[in-house]
Write the structure tokens for this entry.
Amino acid sequence: MRVVVSAGGTGGHIYPALAIINKIKEKEPNSEFLYIGTTDRMEATIIPELGYNYVGLEIKGLNRKKPLKNISVLKSFLKAVKKAKNEIKNFKPDVVLGVGGYVTLPVLYAAHSLKIKTFIHEQNSIPGLSNKLLNKKVDAIGVSLPSSLNHFDKKKTTYTGNPRSEEVINVEKVDKKKYDLTKNKKLVLFVMGSLGSQTVNNMMKEILPKFDKKDYEVLFVTGKDYFDNYKKMKNIPKNVKLVPYLNDMLGVMKSTDLIISRAGASTISEITALGLPSILIPSPYVTHNHQEENAKVLENNGASIIIKEKDLNDEILLEKIDLILNDTKRYNEMVRCNKKLGITDSATRIYKIIRDLIDNK
């Protein structure tokens, strides 16, 4: 199988794309890949380091605050389509995949104009602009959440789940001793993404001391940019451990009883696949407020509790943690509801769709 993959901007797009690539390689080891991303976002570093053929397009997203600047965005889009066409012609793929980010728009438009089979995947409950525009153009669509089905052509859209979820199941569980945690105590994992959140970190300085004398332990992932802010704090309880980042996040999640996190698409897929109860604090700084919409899917199905960032304080956080951890019946129900939402063979489902597209040219 020869595959062009396009995804960019954030890990929420890039890592699901890599999960699909890994599944295709597992099923068809002789497959060849060309990854088309941007010249200046994180995929431009991550993908070449993994050894994949990489092409960067000079393209920007729409400027919603200064519409006049979108004239240059349109020009860059047209140039990107032309370059993508040339790269696709030279590579001669069987299929072109778009897994999120504005870079996918020129790539999938180019593939469509060349009459090459196309597939896109939407991770969030509310689709991004690129996927909305590609809805009519592509041959098949996969979505991570059932609520997304309403935004696409139902005849060609499949509820696949997020391909990252399949990788979670196969990750080895991390021994709590690695982070100086107690084997028999419940663990609350607190993480706001790899970079962390300035707003939440400012609140946590006030909240952390309140965990003193709780019978559970807290592992707080500060984010790389904020870890040094805690070095001078003298009132951090013994049952609270701080780290800047976790390279083995998925393995730690398997040793966790409750996670407190943002509500990005990958996070949602991971916690539902694991059946992990959560308290979600959606980022209010994302387009279309899609993290809150993601979180509502879980809360409405009894799998999570939402605390809006503006409402976060020590009283409400401790109350919700105790509510979940001290009520065995409620806790087990949240586990069940998460697993009901979780899909653990998402990448396999997507591979089958792609294989069918190619076989039915």
